[in-house]
Amino acid sequence: MTETFALAAPIENDSIFLTDWTLCQVRLMDDSRYPWLLLLPRRPGLVEWTELDAADLATLALEIRRAGNALGAAAPFDKLNVAALGNIVRQMHVHVVGRSVGDPAWPGPVWGHGARLPYGTIERDHLVARLTPHL
């Protein structure tokens, strides 16, 4: 039996599907405190980015850049943070987060800083509408 790509439950519960790119599923983290995309390479059982072959690794780098550019076109921020942690959710995923001086976690990391503040429907829909042309 061939394993298929499936989302880890915490990622599925805390984010919103936007689109699929060549390698990654692109999701909006449902936390209105920060403009925040998640990229999930659609490779079954993937835990570490070092497990990607050279072609997928190159595609991931391009998709990270594309996500950063899309985020920057849709939401203002001062600094782009990119990270693949996986300490809580082992499934390989990349965080692409727009940070602004004075945001709730500035200048520290966003992970573990307070409780997630989900978007209201209107706010989320407006952000998705601004992101969509760049995705």
Summarize the structure.
The chain is of the alpha+beta class and 135 residues long. Helix content is 28%, strand content 21%. The protein has one domain: 2-Layer Sandwich (HIT family, subunit A).
Can you offer a commentary on this structure?
GO terms for molecular function: hydrolase activity. This is Diadenosine tetraphosphate (Ap4A) HIT family hydrolase. The protein is an alpha+beta fold and 135 residues long. It has 3 helices and 5 strands. It has helices spanning 9-14, 54-74, 121-131, and strands at 15-20, 24-29, 36-41, 79-83, 94-99. It has a single domain, classed as HIT family, subunit A (2-Layer Sandwich). The termini are far apart.
Give me some keywords for this one.
single chain, 135 residues, alpha+beta, HIT family, subunit A, 3 helices, 5 strands, 28% helix, globular, HIT_Hint, HIT-like, HIT-like_sf, hydrolase
